[in-house]
């Protein structure tokens, strides 16, 4: 061997096909967040004269890289684009193809704390409709809502209250949806293109509310945020992820609705009750398969499968594919708290989360 080289790389990639003047073309773009290199054995330059000799046997070479202080985007996998972090080791062998090894790992980021003041301010909304029939004015239908806070970690319950006043002539129903929006960008001059994707992260449908009645609703534990990638705005130029809570009051017959939208931030540091010794317990899990970031597995991460990456349903029946890597995201273990003097394993997980 002449050298053993290690590369630490963080990279975003976007790619899809477009039709330009009748021709189908592939557009792609890359963005690098980390590109550090080190030689952990041998010499960086090709040695002159005698080539270093590594004796036969097993060898271990410690190495470390310092992650940048700047905010790094989370690891993310989807068909139009991904954000990946990996270590690549190359063994330089004179006059031979160099063996390589790669290890992917997950970055938990960016740092978004539910306790930041901007997320703790309640948001309120109101929508109202009055119907008329043959010049006979009906009573109003009014929807009033209050969102207790606007940032949540996966596993936490969205805190929403709604007051519904139905003085109209038809039944109404409260429907709440948390929507995920992903925008991909490729800047290539005249071929600069964008792609937008949206998914329903969670949905709640209430009971019918009859005319001439008033209903009060509290989300309680009905709107638990499933595992989904965190909000990603202004950190990666190739893609951004944001979430919107849509609150609708649908009229059963006419199909009309009252509606309001609240921006929701999916955070990476959970809410803590002020002045409490109890701290939320966090763990890490792959995203649900109904959201972008959880429904796709890159073919390079599937062992021994000829596979287009669509998940699920693409794998042969009765045989689970061997998945080499999937990114994970911060989750709160519901109904479990720990004190600051929790187990060392929990403290290690918290430390990994902070970094």
Automatic annotation (TrEMBL):
It comes from the Eukaryota. Residues 137-271 form the Arrestin C-terminal-like domain. Pfam families: Arrestin_C, Arrestin_N. Keywords: Sensory transduction. SMART domains: Arrestin_C. SUPFAM superfamilies: E set domains. The keyword Nucleotide-binding does not apply. Belongs to the arrestin family. PANTHER family: ARRESTIN C-TERMINAL-LIKE DOMAIN-CONTAINING PROTEIN, ARRESTIN DOMAIN CONTAINING PROTEIN. This is Arrestin C-terminal-like domain-containing protein.
